[in-house]
Amino acid sequence: MMTIAEVGDIIEFKDGLQGIVEKVNENSVIVDLTYMEDFDELEMEEKTVINHKRYKIIHSAAE
After folding, report:
1. What highest taxon heads this organism's lineage (predicted)?
2. Does the reported pTM lie above 0.85?
3. Which stretches of the chain are DSSP H helices?
4. How far apart are CA 54 and CA 62, in angstroms?
């Protein structure tokens, strides 16, 4: 059983990228990447979509 992130959770995906979950969809989450300290250096969009199978929760907003 896969644990699905909730709004406000911090997740990690790909090669150590992190972000805050802004919206939970049926098969994915929308993540705000500006959470990362080095965001400006990465030259990426502010938000991205990550499939539930492709991330792990590193901090739960419920804690």
Report:
1. Bacteria
2. yes
3. 39-42
4. 21
CA angle, 60 then 61 then 63, to 5°: 70
Q: What's the pLDDT band for 62 if we cut at 50, 70, 90? A: confident
State both tokens at 62.
């419920």
In this structure, the number of other CB atoms found within 10 A of the CB of residue 3 comes to 11
Nearest to 21 by CA among 9, 36, 35: 9
Q: Which amino acid is at 31?
A: V
- Residue 44 pLDDT > 90: yes
Structure tokens at 50: 């990550």
Spell out the domain ranges in the chain: 10-59
